[in-house]
Structure formats: structure tokens, C-alpha cells
Amino acid sequence: MIKTVFIGLFCGAAILTAGILIGHYGIEKSSDSEPAWVKDVSKDVDERLLEEFLSEVDNVNIKDNLRELTKVPHMATTVGDEKTVQLMLKRWQDPESGLDQAWREEYMVYLSFPDPDKPNKVTVVNPSNTVLHTAREKEKAYTSDQKDPDVVQPYAAYSPAGQVQGKLVYANYGTVNDYKWLSQKLNLTGTIAITRYGGAGRGAKAINAVPYGILGVLVYTDPLDINEGLMSDINETYPHSWYMPPSGVERGAYASTYGDLLTPYLAAKEETYRIPEKDITGIPTIPIQPIGFEDAYILICELGGDPAPQFWQGGFNCTYNYGGPGFRPSSHFYNSDVKMDIFNYCEVKNSSNVMGVIKGSVEPDRYVIYGNHRDSWVHGAIDPSSGTSVMLELTRVLGKMVKQGKWRPRRSIVFGSWGAEEFGLIGSTEYTEQYFTKLSERTVAYINVDIAVQGNATLRALGMPSLQNVVFTAAKQVKAPGADSMSVYDKWIQHSNRTSPVHGLIPRMGYLTGEGSDYAPFVHYLGITSLDLMYTYDRSKTKVRIYPAYHTAYDTFDYSSNYVDPGFYTHQAVAKTAGSVLVRLADSLLLPMNCSDYAESLEAYLSEALKHYEDSLLAMNISMEPIKRAVASFRIAATHLDQVIRSSDLANETPLKVRKINDQLMLLDRAFLRPPAFPSKNRHVIWAPIEISLSSFPGLSSAYVSAMSSGQASAWAQVHHLVSVMSQAIEGAAHMMLDVI
Amino acid sequence: MIKTVFIGLFCGAAILTAGILIGHYGIEKSSDSEPAWVKDVSKDVDERLLEEFLSEVDNVNIKDNLRELTKVPHMATTVGDEKTVQLMLKRWQDPESGLDQAWREEYMVYLSFPDPDKPNKVTVVNPSNTVLHTAREKEKAYTSDQKDPDVVQPYAAYSPAGQVQGKLVYANYGTVNDYKWLSQKLNLTGTIAITRYGGAGRGAKAINAVPYGILGVLVYTDPLDINEGLMSDINETYPHSWYMPPSGVERGAYASTYGDLLTPYLAAKEETYRIPEKDITGIPTIPIQPIGFEDAYILICELGGDPAPQFWQGGFNCTYNYGGPGFRPSSHFYNSDVKMDIFNYCEVKNSSNVMGVIKGSVEPDRYVIYGNHRDSWVHGAIDPSSGTSVMLELTRVLGKMVKQGKWRPRRSIVFGSWGAEEFGLIGSTEYTEQYFTKLSERTVAYINVDIAVQGNATLRALGMPSLQNVVFTAAKQVKAPGADSMSVYDKWIQHSNRTSPVHGLIPRMGYLTGEGSDYAPFVHYLGITSLDLMYTYDRSKTKVRIYPAYHTAYDTFDYSSNYVDPGFYTHQAVAKTAGSVLVRLADSLLLPMNCSDYAESLEAYLSEALKHYEDSLLAMNISMEPIKRAVASFRIAATHLDQVIRSSDLANETPLKVRKINDQLMLLDRAFLRPPAFPSKNRHVIWAPIEISLSSFPGLSSAYVSAMSSGQASAWAQVHHLVSVMSQAIEGAAHMMLDVI
Fold it and tell me: Which of A543, B5, B272, B416 has CA 20 to 30 A from B85's CA?
């Protein structure tokens, strides 16, 4: 009996236990199990998927893209440009490897062109008006590409039309100081100045000339600056090498401001108010025209007057005199004028941006924007189609992963194929003007890849220092082109490095203090954290200012595939590096943006500034203490935010906490925008695009230089004012990193 | 045997079932149960707690607050002001009913005062320099309050010092048109103009006079405008009623711009760059001084010349002539001048804001800011201490609930007690300049309660239309003062209503198109959705421009408790209404901000604009189609966002979705800011503070009026430009409401 009872109890207990186990583990708790989204919100970057994505990026596809893009010239708003719009749309709307959506956005923009019926002429005319020499109107053809009828004649966009002539003078780079020096040697009234590219902005060479009564300006690229002195197309220059041939001419926009010139601060739509053309500022008021160095040689080596200073001498095998003014008595051009007949005209034309998006799965209202301009001057194989072909391969691989259901980024990715960049960053600027608030409030970062490859030695990165770390991470996981055992990072640190007080020896990333590509409206106008990536040549081995076919008719597929990136492994490496940065920014739970690295850059800038001008400012009763305090506040706040991040368990805490921190990171650069008080699109107080050789706050340093130069009280007041503006902006940025309340 | 088996199986099954039930429901699933924060993120407003909070708000406490605040005058930066700083800090740092934190923030601000040793004088002097009449320098004392030595002499802040005299003329309100009309009747060179308050801004009365050679300006409050014509202090005015006594003078700031005048766009800290005083714009350049109507009566009724127009006539029992210039021959003042000896001086002084915060529990990085200025001209019982006493009761009740652990708002609440408002919204403006980015990026709404009660008939609300609904909800749950069965809402709709195409008959909420109180920098500079609340008198029964003791020495506790809000039930109703709005904004899961109501207001503005000037603009080749299209886009986008909200289950979906929608709602008003191209602090294109009588877009309407008046091409270009600016801003706002990508 007792045995039966025991057996009964034992069985009962066993059954009960079995029941409990079944009930607890076997059956889904419908009410208490966490909602599906709980896992999603802590989605982070998937390294395995990222590797898979990187392995898919194919150099041959990039090559094929480039071939297609560079079949014909595709200058902004031409038939060739429209072809590229169609290509982008086709790829981005592809059912298997396209994006979620792609569309075009048109703007009516003010462009400048040479007159196809009346080509611009540069001649030497004697007193009887006989033409002694005519400069080439077109670049010499070495391949069929140069024979394409859509190769636009070399010209200076936004140079006014005009017919002028006068004695020739040589004015070095055409900087303010160059003309000033020359004006002390010669009476420049009524002269024509010939200048070389570099040293000053394009339009500045004409603008700087006007006060001296100069009637017109010529520009050429000196072989010393572009070719290590080489000049012969028999065996030295393209098509035998990558060097610029003697008739090669760099085209370009000669405006000082970016964006559509008739609709500042507004999107250039059809019905938008346009300012009167006469009210446009910052474009030349005298004719200016670029020519090849073979013609420059013919002109410069005949000049009279005394030899120009040593640092004005270029690569021609003659002494550069600065002019009598005009040619020397022994010259067959003696007493002759240089004549410029320029027939450029301006008109409003439709330019398109092509936009594509991949919607984010967790935070669709956070954007990572990747941009490249699509328009070229001629075939644009390097500029910009090296970047376009890279972008198309990136979108193909990412698009395919999305279409196959393998991946969707946490945040939204926006691809921007900008139009009319060559005319002054117009497509990207109009975009930022149209969507100003939306972009300011939602954009985590902007990645610009204009020229992807102009050389295959090393990565070159410019950006906000907060992005340094994610660029390093990406560069470490990509193989360097042509170096099996080295990463892009390894190569980079070899070529360009610095010693960080915190990180030790690391590659040197530069800053976006210029207006040279489409990052400018994002950085300076919107205050968005940005990056510009490119592969470039070894600047310790070659002194060329930029790749020698830049903006010429020689920037072709043939040029790129023979002399810049045979095999396209470098294009592939850029695609992988940029792609990895893009995916990390889009997918990381916590934005990979480092405030302490920003603090380090500010401290370096400050240190230089103090060294160079703290005492001068104090002598004018302007203390730099507020900036010192502000940078110190910034450092403390950055350290604090780092600490908050380190002590958090972001994947397991409320998603509103990581969102709060991510917002702090995203909005940091917004705080650096100066108050909306000044009619300038350039508002970022740290990176304000000023040409200044000092490695310090460009805006402040430039104001200091002006004040020292003019000595005027108002100039010093401006310095004082900037100290206040900057210190309050830096303090404002520090506030963004402190506890939110 | 079979029976035993059945019993055995039955018991086994029962035990098994019991086990399953225990295992499923009885034991916590440690791994699968949702994280604690999952419930928190969907926290919504708790109506029960809100009712409890409202029931705690005590009119007697408010009365006691007022008594304490108005013991002595507390003009900005005086000893009395410092006392109020200490009071705020003490209350907000109270261990049982204080806030999480409270502190002060100091600014060094440029203020203007009369010279205590050399009081401003207004006299009538005859040709022999004999003084025939001296206007009162102080207001007459009826209670001990007026005898306080810290009652500042009536003066015009920012009037320059100066000693001038001339023939007197009467210039109505001193508007541009008033002076223009008068200049056609008289040669105004060398005259002194007397004007009445109203019609034009204070400083404008002097600024408008300058082009005509007028040497100085007097200002007074006409009994017709303030007292329904009543004038006698024997039995008609205060202390017998609320009407202004004959020696009463309205003080005020006579600057046209707000914020510290020496540090535009920058926080006025000690080391901040200050512009030279001579570069300040928008303040009078000729002396201006306010006087009481008893003195104005003595002067105006003696004027010579012809009668002024009918609509220039005021409440005196004499005909208002506009002057000979000067007094009429039969007057004992004939041939005499009016002399002004003004000794005002400016200096930089320390003004404090007192800040307090309650940190949000779920979204601490979202702020609801509640502000009131603390400084007064004299005792300031209505302006601003009616609001201060309300704010202190609100913070007491909310603080107590937090300290007792009963409640913590979802979002952070920031209380701002502003200094130096009377001198031009200085404390609040410096605050917005200092924390520009932080505030722009995190502030959901700003609630301003300056004067809480100037009458007890009805609520008066001004704000962005998106807040209309939450104000209605709050008003419905608060009992109207003195009306047991009516709510604040019921009273409101009786006094001021409109018919909405969507809602039918509803109370009329006004717009924040002025610069009259501390909402101005939030609305116009930062673009933050804002609200201003006050209880006021019945404007259908009384024509007074504002409560008659406004800015005089009679704005005292005695005045308020006898004639404005005996019992303080109206103060209590305002506290509850404002408090309810505050809590709803801070606690609601989905921000109670309605885009379709905003669309309705834009459509009404547009309709008025089209009616008034579509044809005139078209005649100048300016089409209003872009604005029509933009308003239509806005409506479509608002409808779409409403639809998204309606079809969502926000409490159960990912918190990042409601965050995304809330960000869209919060940032809507930011999109209305014009591009940072114009050196003006007033950037909100819809509510731009322009004095215009048209019920339409103030900025555009004002530009239209200017262009019609001047006929100049540049004025019409400005209209055209504004059409573009506005339509692109409205389109930008529409974009904020569309799907985020």
C-alpha cells in the first residue's frame, strides 16, 4: 500500500514537473513576450554582411561603367548630359539591383557658354591690324575622342563677352599681390595680362586685375606646375604619358560664389525670383580666356621688360620677363598687341540632379547622403566619371542586397547625382537650398566622391575630424591596390601621417575648408558633418598641381585606363572604402562619430592661432581668452559624452537613449554655424572657406591678416567680433555634448 | 481495475494541466519578458494625475505670491530685481516643492535710465525764459506704494539726453502718415511735437519725427484711449476705479529692435564684442519724454492753428488744434516754447535670468519651455507679476508632485524667469542667442505668460494654429472664473469666436505677429511653435487700449486685488489653463500639435492676400501661383501626416516611429524660417512682425503696401522676391510633413 502511494506520488510529481516545463518553455507567452520591434531598434552594423558587400564590388564593372559614361562628352545640360541622366535612372530603377526609388529633379540655372558660331579668338595683331599669330581654338586630337564635335572649345565660364586688345604683361598667378607688385613696375592701364593657373581662384585672376585698368586676362597651365617641366607631345606628354600636351587647356567656372547666380538662397525653379544679371557679384567684368602652354610659350618668351622675380619663373626654356609692357624690341611681335575676341553668352538652362534612396528600416528619418557630380567639361573620365562609375558599382551591390532581401540599412541612404557642378556646385547647392530644413534636421553625414581616382599611391581624405575613426576603420579592411599585404590604411599612413597626442602615429586627414566640390553647401551652408574621398598620386615624388588632363579634352577612358588606373583596382579600392564608411554610418547603432577627435583638431587650430597672433591681438586689446575657454569647454564636454557612451549599454537600454546620443552627435556641427546675421552662404565658423596658408581657424586667421595689412580700426573690430562669434559657436557646440538638460 | 486506470489517467491529466498552467502563467520568463523600458516609451498623459494637479492650484497662494513680489518696485537690475531673483531661486530650490535644478544666468546688458540727480523736466518757457508751467516729474501718490523712493521717474528708455525747446505742435499718434500730414500744414522745423500713445511703436514716434526737423517729442496717454474719456481722480479714476489717474504715465522702451543693443546675435557676456554705441540703430536720436494727461491737457488745449482732423481728436473737453505752430494768441502760453531737459544716460548692467528644470523621464532631450519675465517698471502687479505669481504656483504644484515621486513628465520642462524684458525682451533674447542650436533642435514648444490677468472676462490666446487644439482641450477642463457652470472655453467662445470650415464655431485664437513679449525671439528668431496666454477684459464693453495702470506707478497689489481680480480666481484659471497645456505638451505620447489647423490658417491668410493684391501683383508681372501651389502642397502634406497618425498604433509600434512623427511636428515651424541671408532677427515668413492691418501674411502684405506707395521697381522686386521666399518656405514646411524619405 505504502509502495503504491509512493509510486503514485512519484508519478504525480513527475507529471507535474513535466507540465511546468511544458508550460514555461513550450508555450509562447503571448502577452509578455517582447514586441517584434524591440530587437530591431538595437540593430547594429553586421560585419559579416559588410565583408560580403565589399567582396562583391567588382573592378571590371567599374571599368565598364566608365567606358559607358565617357563615350561622349557630357557637359551640363547637353545631350550627352541627358544621356547620363537616363543611365543613372536606368541603373537605379533596375528591378534586380536598383534602389527603392529614383527620380530626377530639375532646376533652371544660369550657365555660360562659348558661341559655337563665333569661336573665341586670341591673336597677336600688329599696328596695321595684321594677325601675326592665332592661338589654337581647339586642343589637338590624338585619339578620336578629341574629334567629337561636342568637345566644347576651351573657355572661361562666366567671362563676359568682349573684344579688347593691348600690350601684353605677365602677372604670375594673378593674385592680389602679383598685380600689386607688377603695378609698381609698370603702368598696367590698357594692358592684357597673361597669368598661370594656380595660386588664386580662376575668377580672381580677372577680378584682381580690374583696379589696375587691365583690359583682359589670359590663363594657361605652366609645364612647371603640371608636367614637371615636360613639354613635348612627341614623346613626353600625352598620349605617351599622363602629362598635359602643349595644346591642353583647363576649362572651368570663373565665379567666386557657388550655386545658381540668379537665385541666391532659393531653389532655381522656373517661377523663382531672379535677380537682375547686373546685380550678380563675384564674376569677372573683363574678358578672360584660357589657352594652352604652347601658345603661352610663344607669347611669354617674347615679352620685353625686365625678368620677373625668381618665383614667377615657370618651366619654359626662356626667361619670363614681365613685359615692357608688351613684346621686346627684338621680337617679331614687337609693337604688337594681344587681342582677345570673346563671344561667351549666358543663358538659363535645365539641369537635373538624379536622386535615389534606400529607405532605412529602423530610423528612416535619418539620412546618410552620398554624392557625386555627373556633369563633366569634356569626357570627364577622371573628373567626375571616375567617381560616377564607382558610385554606380556601389549602388548596384547595395541595391542587389536590398532587392534580394538580404539587407536594409538601419538609416536611410540617399544617393545624389548632381548636375552642373562644373559651373559652380550648382546642382548640389540648389538641392540644399530647396530642402534646407529637411536636410539640416535629418542628415547624419554627407560623403562626397567627386574624382574617385587621380592616382594610385594613396587615399586622400578631407573631412570633419569626428569622422576620422570610421574612415580609418574602413581603410583598414580594404586591400590597397597593387599591394597584396597592405591595406589602404597602411599605404595611407606611409604617405601622409601625423602624431596624435591620443592615437600616436596615424594617417593625416585634411579639412574641408574649400569650396572645390559639392561638399561645400553641405559643410558651409547646412553645417552637416561631411567627408570627401579620393585616391591620389605620391606628392613626394611628383609636384603636379592636379592630374595633368584636368578639365581638358584628354580626360578620357584611354587616359584613365592607360595612365591613371590600369586594371581599375584603385577605383575598386575607393569604392570599397567609401562603401564601408557609408554602410557603417547607415548601420551602426551608435553613430561612428568621435567628439574627442574633433576636440583634438580644435586644440591644434587654437595652438597655431595663439602662436601666430595671440600677442598681436592683445596689443589691440583683443583677448583670445574666450576662444581658449570655449575650446576647453568643448574638450570637457566631449570627454563627458564619451564617458556617457562608455558607461551605457546602448543595445539594451531604451532606444530613446541611443537616439538622444545620436542626435547629439549628428547635430554637433550645426552648432558651429554662425548666427543667421550675415549674408553669406558660408556659415561654419571652424572651416569657413578662406584661402589662408595658416593651419588655423580660416575665418579668424584671414580677418587677422586683413587687419594687420590695412591697420584700420574697422578691420580690428571685425577680428574682435569674430573672436566672439567663434567662441560662442564653440561653446554652443560644447552645450550639444553635455547632458541634454 | 479499469476504474483505477481511469482515475489514474484523470488525476495525471489534472496534475499535468495544473503544471502547465503554473509553468506558463506563474513563473516569469526571464529571457523573453520585455525590457522594463518598453512600457516607459509609450508613456502618455495621465488625465487623472492632470486633474489632481489642477485641483491643487490655489488662488490664495497666487495672491500671496503677488503680495510678496510687489512689496517694492523691481525694475531690471535694481536691488528690488535682485530680491525677486532670490525669491525665484528659493522657491525653485525648495526641497519639497522645488524643481530638479534652478540657477541664474547673468548677462551684461545695455540699459537706459533717468538721472536721479537731474530729473527730466518738461516746461513751458516764455521768451524771457520764465517758466510758466512745469509738468509733473512724478506721478501723484494715492497709496504708500507711489511714495517708494525706488519708483523710477517716468521716462522713455533709450531716449537720448538733450535740452531742446520749440513751438509745440500736436501730431496725433506720431505715425509716418501723421507727421507727413502735419508737415503739409506747418513747417515743423524746430518744433516740439506732442503725441499720444498707440498707433505707432514708442520709438517710432521720435524716429518718424526726425526727417521734419522736429527737435523733441512728448508722449501722453489720451483719456479717450485709456479711460473711456474719464479724467477726474476725485471720483472717476484710480484709486476709485481701475482707470488711469491724470498724472499717470506709461513708461517703456523706445527701441525698435529687441535684444541687447550692443551685442546683436551674440549673448551679452562680459567679454563679448560690443558694437560702438554710435552704430546702434533703431533708437530715437531726438529726446522723447512721456507725461501725464493732466499736463498734456494743459498744453494741447492751448494750441493754436486749425483744428486737427476728427480722428485726431481725443478725450479732452476742448478742440485739439494741431498748433500755429505753438500756442494760440489768446493763451497765456502764447509765444512760449515747450522746453525739454532730458538727462537720461545709458550703461551696461548685470541682468539675470533664473532658470529651472524638471528633467523628462522618457525623452529628456525634448523641451517644453514656459517663460515669464520678472522685471517690472514699478511694482508691476499686473505686468509682469500677475504672470510671475501664476508661474510660482505652477512650479510649486508640479515640483511637489515630482518631489513626492508621483509624477515626472515624459519630456523635460524648462522654466525661464526672464530679466530686462521691459528694456526690449533682453533676457529671453540673450538666452536664445546663447543656446541657439540646443534650443532649436530640442524645443517642442514655448509657452509665454507675461501678464496673466488684465481683466476677468475671457481668455486671450495668441499662437501657432497647430496649438489651437491643445489650448481648447485645456480651456474646456478649467472652470471659468466667476461662472460655476461654464468653462474657460465656454466663456471664450462667447467673447471671441470664428467659424472654421472644419470645426464649426470655435474660439478665436490670434497670431504671434508682434514683438510685444518674450515669445518674439522664440517665434521669429528660432522658429519655435509658441503660445501666449492671458485673461483679459470684454473688448465689446470697454474700449481701453490696455489695462489703464499699464507701466505706471499704479500697477500695484492694491490695484489688482481691488479692480482687476478680486479673489484671484482669474489668476487661478490662467494657472490651470496654462498648466494643462504645459503638461499635455510635456506628457503626451504624440505631441498635441495639429498640422491641418495650421493649413487652415495659411489658407485663410492666402485667401485674404489674393483678394487684396493678387491682381495688383499680376499687373506688375508677379504671379502668386507659387504661393497658391505651396499652400496647397502644405494642405496635402498635412492631410497625409494626419492620415499616417490615424492609421498608426503609436503606443504599440516602435518608439522610433512616434519619435519620427513627433520630430516632424516639432520641426514644422523651423521650416518657415527664411534662409539665413538677411541680417534680421525676424525670420519666420508667416508671422513676421510687421505692423499691418491686413489679415494676411504680414511680411508680404507690408512689402506690397510699400511698393504701391513708392511705385519703385526695387520695391516691386522685393515683393517678387518675397513671393519666392515664402512659397519655398511653405513648400519646405510641407516637405517636413511628408513621408520622411
Answer: B272
Which residues, numbered 431 to 490 in chain A, qualify as contacts with chain B under a Cβ-Cβ cut-off of 8 Å? 433-438, 441-442
| Positions of chain A with pLDDT lower than 50, given as ranges | none
- From chain B, pick out residues whose CB is under 8 angstroms from the CB of A656: 41, 362-363, 655, 659
Residues of A in contact with B359 (CB under 8 A): 741
Question: E strands of B343-489, at which residues?
Answer: 345-358, 363-373, 411-418, 443-448, 458-463, 479-480, 483-487
pTM: 0.94
- What pLDDT is attached to residue B31? 53
User: Tell me, what's the ipTM?
Assistant: 0.91
How many Cβ pairs closer than 8 A exist between chain A and B?
250
CB A355 within 8 A of CB A417: yes
Instruction: Specify the residue for cell string 529651472.
Output: B356
Residue B496: Cβ-neighbour burial (10 angstroms; 0-12, 13-18, 19+):
buried
Instruction: Name the CA radius of gyration of chain A, rounded.
Output: 30
For chain A, give me the number of helices (H) and strands (E)? Answer: 22, 19
Catalytic residue among A393, A421, A422, A430: A421
Q: Per-residue pLDDT for B203 more than 80? A: yes
Q: What is the largest CA-CA distance in chain A?
A: 141
| B373: nearest Cα among B426, B314, B417, B307 | B417
Name every chain B residue with its beta carbon within 8 A of the beta carbon of A442. Answer: 740
Residues 6+ apart with CB under 8 A from A186: A169, A305, A322, A323, A324, A325
Instruction: Tell me which of B250, B302, B421, B731 is the catalytic residue.
Output: B421
CA A21 – CA B19 distance, rounded (Å): 8
Decide if A732 touches B, using CB distance below 8 A: yes
CB spacing of B24 vs A29 below 8 angstroms? yes
Res B722 pLDDT > 70 = yes
With CA atoms as reference, the chain B residue closest to A32 would be B33
Q: How far is CA A364 from the centre of its chain?
A: 26
pLDDT of residue A450: 98
Kindly list the residues from chain B whose CB atom is less than 8 angstroms away from the CB atom of residue A728: 266-267, 272, 433-434
Q: Are A584 and A370 in contact (CB under 8 A)?
A: no
B34 lies within 8 A of chain A by CB? yes
Distance CA B530, CA B465 (A): 9
Q: Which residues contact B9 (CB under 8 A, 6 or more apart)?
A: none
**What residue of A is the nearest CA neighbor of B653?**
A37
Q: For chain B, give the percent of residues with pLDDT over 90.
A: 89
Cell 522685393 belongs to residue = B718
Sign of the CA dihedral with A606 first, then A609, A614, and A617 last: negative
